Amino acid sequence: MKKYSAFSLFKNALTNNKNWQASWRDASPKSKYDAIIVGGGGHGLATAYYLAKNHGMKNIAVVEKGWIGGGNTARNTTIVRSNYLCKESSLLYEKSLKLWEGLSQDINFNVMFSQRGVYNLGHTLQDMRDIERRVSANQLNGIDAEVVNAQQIKEAIPLINTSATARYPILGASLQRRAGVARHDAIAWGYARAASELGVDIIQQCEVTGIRKNGSQVTGIETTRGYIESKKVGVVVAGHASVLADMAGIRLPLESHPLQAYVSEPLKPVLDTVIMSNAVHGYVSQSDKGELVIGAGIDSYIGYGQRGSFHTIEHCMQAIIALFPNFSRVRMLRQWGGIVDVSPDACPILSKTPVEGLYLNCGWGTGGFKATPGSGWTFAHTIANNQPHELNAPFSLDRFSTGALIDEHGAAAVAH
Amino acid sequence: MLLIKCPWCGERDETEFSYGGEAAIKRPLKPKDLNDKDWADYLFMRKNTRGLFLEQWNHSVGCRQWFLVERNTVTYEIISTKRMNSDALNSEDSQ
Ligand SMILES: Cc1cc2nc3c(=O)[nH]c(=O)nc-3n(C[C@H](O)[C@H](O)[C@H](O)COP(=O)(O)OP(=O)(O)OC[C@H]3O[C@@H](n4cnc5c(N)ncnc54)[C@H](O)[C@@H]3O)c2cc1C
Ligand SMILES: [Zn+2]
Q: Tell me, what DSSP letter sits at residue A311?
């Protein structure tokens, strides 16, 4: 495969960009693999890449029912940060953040990771106490975090409404400067290209319809393109995790909800960082194209329809206008939904299962994009060694019966 | 927005209701006999069905009654709503 570089851009420009190669091989299924990853989102592709790169496994397939990166990976608002409260989660997300920092070089694909900082606003005294606590916890875990006051926020973000008479006045914020945003598609395409280069088969338009077992050992998967044999199957299907687990007779503590996002018409640069607020419940950043990228909370009901309710949109817009009154005249361009797999403790499941050779990576809910590299890294380790990496050991399926839940709900800065 | 027919008040906007998730989860009758796995199953494990699903809603800013809704979780179409009583819940059992 040709390496991407400034020189290759220049050279291809000379031939009218007609000589670029396809980025990855669109493979057809073989009858047997050493490991199969179900789900070609960012997490599945990252898992395949690290299985090949870190663990030397070559005979691997990623099986995707639609097109790679067409699920939540393509639908999210791309906030990347690691300032979680609990030690277990902050270490996992920080591993990811470190990988993000070198990712474009590692996979030779520009993932446009932009460390523009993330502000999590506090609007009440209790918010500020929680922020102080979380920032201190972050610092103890070696993660960059600081508390800023309303005046510092106003200086950094001139358009924000810091008036003391606002309905929800801004008292301060936590700031993680190393946090930021990245390009959603690039993470799928980049990992796919790098994995394909290492020999991984990427199989699109191939839906998994059954999981076969012999006793308690997984033996393969049934798909719309035939039966494929493998003694190791990693399921990484986000909102569809319960559906796939059910095929293997496993019950999961997950509920799948619609989560929507919105972009505005493109504007000149007005916001060079990311703002999130738990109290008014919304968050916003500005894309390189100039669109405001906006999101908020899930729809309350279980939904697999990749769309949500209008009142959820209205609620989110109210939140953004409360923070940025100037945005009230901005027109919204597009809106869409994904299906997020929400777990009881707002933490993922990266785990072995009661079925030997079957591994689960799910429960990332509203906030797994940021974790894509670390999730792939630790899940690949789990599959290759048939035991978890120390970073994902706490995120086992067992924790729901041992009681060792990791209570990020309400403790994290906000859903994303 | 969903239009939900409260069995007591009639059709109202979704914003009048709050969601209660999966219906007909049985509280263990003999809690002392349960092991940790059984407890996990009762407390945390959910069907999370893709397709026809029986769930509970509360008319929280109306009559405040809980009731049952059968809904398709892919199309979001509401098939039926009915009052919450043992007959309705037991008929779910036999399925
Ligand atoms: C609107 C929205 C905003 C978000 N904002 C953020 C954010 O700002 N920051 C953040 O960190 N996270 C965010 N998230 C969450 C984040 O998008 C997800 O946690 C993450 O992208 C999940 O990645 P994945 O690879 O596991 O899932 P996906 O990208 O959904 O991939 C799963 C794949 O599995 C495939 N699949 C399903 N069933 C089958 C089957 N039977 N056979 C074969 N393939 C199958 C699907 O087609 C899909 O491509 C947001 C999510 C949404 C919806
Ligand atoms: Zn009513």
A: H
A329 DSSP assignment: G
pLDDT at A416 over 80: no
What is the interface pTM, i.e. ipTM, of the complex? 0.93
Q: Are A107 and A193 in contact (CB under 8 A)?
A: yes
Ligand 2 centroid, distance to B1 Cα (angstroms) = 17
Distance CA A29, CA A375 (A): 25
Write out the DSSP string of A66-81: SSTT-SHHHHS--EE-
Q: How many CB atoms lie within 10 A of CB A22?
A: 9
Torsional sign, CA A365, A360, A141, A118: negative
Angle A42-55/A372-385 helices, nearest 10 degrees? 50
Collect all residues with Cβ–Cβ distance below 8 Å to A375 and sequence separation of at least 6: A43, A46, A47, A92, A96, A348, A350, A361, A364, A368
Which of A369, A372, A414 gets mutated to test ligand 1 (max ligand atoms within 8 A of its CB)?
A: A369
Residue A340 alpha carbon, nearest atom of ligand 1: 53
Q: Does domain B3-83 have CATH number 3.30.2270.10?
A: yes
- Written as six digits, the tokens of A391 are 């970073």
Domain ranges for chain B: 3-83
- Distance, in Å, from the CA atom of A40 to the CA atom of A100, rounded to the nearest integer, reads 19
Q: Cα angle at A99 between A366 and A395, to 5 degrees?
A: 50
Q: How far is CA B82 from CA A125, B25, B58, B60, in A?
A: 44, 17, 12, 16
The verdict on pTM exceeding 0.80 is yes
Q: Is residue A331 helix, strand or coil?
A: coil
CB B35 within 8 A of CB A242: no
Give contacts of A305 with chain B, Cβ < 8 Å: 73-76
Tell me if B40 and A400 make a contact (CB, 8 A cut-off): yes
Condensed to tens digits (0 to 9), the pLDDT of residues A84-94 reads: 999 999 999 99
Beta carbons within 8 Å of A301's beta carbon, 6+ residues apart: A257, B2, B19, B55, B71, B73, B76
Contact predicate A153/A88, CB 8 Å: no
Q: Which residues of B touch A403 (CB under 8 A)?
A: 36
How far is residue B66's CA from residue A219's CA, in Å, rounded to a whole number? Answer: 45
Residues of chain A positioned with their CB less than 8 A from the CB of B68: none
Q: Is A370 in the pocket of ligand 1 (CB under 6 A)?
A: yes
Q: How does residue A296 score in pLDDT terms, banded at 50, 70 and 90?
A: confident
